[in-house]
Amino acid sequence: MTADSSRAWSLASLARQDASDSTELGARIQALEGQLNLRLGWRPDLGESVATACRSLDRTRAVPLLITVARTAIDEGDTAAARDTVDQLEALDGGSAEFRSLVRIRCDLGDGAADVQATAAARLERAFAQPPSPADDFATLATVAGAALDRGRIALARSIYLRAEPLARTSGDVDDITNVAFGVAFCDHTLGAWTSAYARALEVSDLLLDIDIPVRRCEALLLQAEIDAARGQASRCRATCAQVRTLSGPLFDPVIALLGERREALLDLGIGRLDQAAVRLEAAVAYCRLHAIHYPYHSPVPDLVEVYVRSGRLDDARAVAPEFLDRVGPLAPPLARARSLRIRGLLASGPEYDAAFTESVELDLSNGHVFQAARTLLCQGERRRRDRRRVEARARLRTALDMFQRLEAAPWVARCEAELAASGAAVTPVRDADVSTLLTAQELQVAILVAEGRRTRDVAETLFLSPRTVESHLSRVYRKLGVNTRTQLSRRMNGDG
């Protein structure tokens, strides 16, 4: 299953029609259809269909598929399917006990009563404190990493994905390899290591050029588009979003199209095209309502509130805000709670805005959400300046400016500089082209691996290149970035030089 999934699915459907007299063969074909459908996105009937097929399969065939479906279902928030699948796994004594327990904990967090959620959260924290012991259990490691991501424990998630990476590469399973690579890229992006994130997302995109796992490829492209949007790379961002729209046509997952629209809206917000950003985000809100997309991470409401406030449309901002605020409780992931606090700061009519903004920034920084923290600092600085608290405004704006400069987020740097100038501060603009623009895709991949401290031979093996080719790429990287040593390269790639 490494080429054309849609063609394979059609052939499997035809085969199932001819296999009606064989329960086992029909079940095997139905299971194959389920595996192929997973590559096209999650849908409500998929878990039930695969679970039904697995009841007629022998244990050796059923267990790996049930593990995959349980992982996908819980990541997609389909707790009913996750519970049914893990129950079937337990009946077969399939998967590790730790894996089954983790899936149930995440189910309780997703659909349990308040006391059940609190107990599940405490159990998950204990699992985080002592990560899974089976060194060769990829499914358990990937599930813990996914749980850490969901709870906003980004640095922890990254470390667990890196533990799982050798297992994925040893297995040779492209799905697992790209799952880990994208997981690390997502963590790097959240933690502000954008150049590393961009390089890893490019690696995933390249690996999937000739392999039909369209959902994963769209995820990688969306991450690239988000970084390009924040850095003001308009043509590249819009081209990538157009590519995502083309790829997402046959997919079951409505979130893919939503996230593409949000990336372009972020670009418009950053470069000051507020009217266009509002149009995109209003359409995204309507799309969420139509498809019942409620998960806070996917919501366009926080960005739309900011656009409305910056456009002077306070009544519209107050009208749409509850669609997000009412869904974010005290046990919600940190990223959602921080966005809720930013919204409250933007909408506050009195001096209480400072407390909401400050708490939002502290929550983001404690969980590594660098870009989001910088955006909130900018909002707070703007509000203080409008309240004639210019000296206090400058402190927030300078901190935000430093963070945006490290991220090479040019449009946001420009906004900070404009606010600082309006507050009476002297500003000396600094404009360096971002690394992902200066380097080719392969140079970028070489640069990030070298910056991580890997030897030339290790880089060559990872990228399937010769050591001589790696050294040739590295020489061009040095020249383009104006560095002379691996230490200087590491500082530049991490935004420290």
Features:
Serine Threonine Protein Phosphatase 5, Tetratricopeptide repeat; globular; 4 domains; disordered N terminus; mainly alpha; 497 residues
Quick structural gist:
With 497 residues, this protein is an all-alpha fold.
Verbal overview:
The protein is mostly helical and 497 residues long. The chain has 4 domains: 1-110; 183-327, Tetratricopeptide repeat domain (Serine Threonine Protein Phosphatase 5, Tetratricopeptide repeat); 328-422, Serine Threonine Protein Phosphatase 5, Tetratricopeptide repeat (Alpha Horseshoe), CATH 1.25.40; 438-493, Arc Repressor Mutant, subunit A. It contains 28 helices and no strands. It has helices at residues 5-17, 23-38, 46-54, 59-75, 79-91, 97-111, 114-129, 138-150, 154-171, 174-190, 194-207, 214-230, 234-248, 254-270, 274-291, 301-310, 314-320, 322-325, 334-347, 353-366, 370-386, 390-407, 410-422, 435-438, 441-451, 456-463, 467-481, 486-493. The radius of gyration is 24 Å and the shape is globular. The relative contact order is 0.06. Residues 1-5 have low confidence and may be disordered.
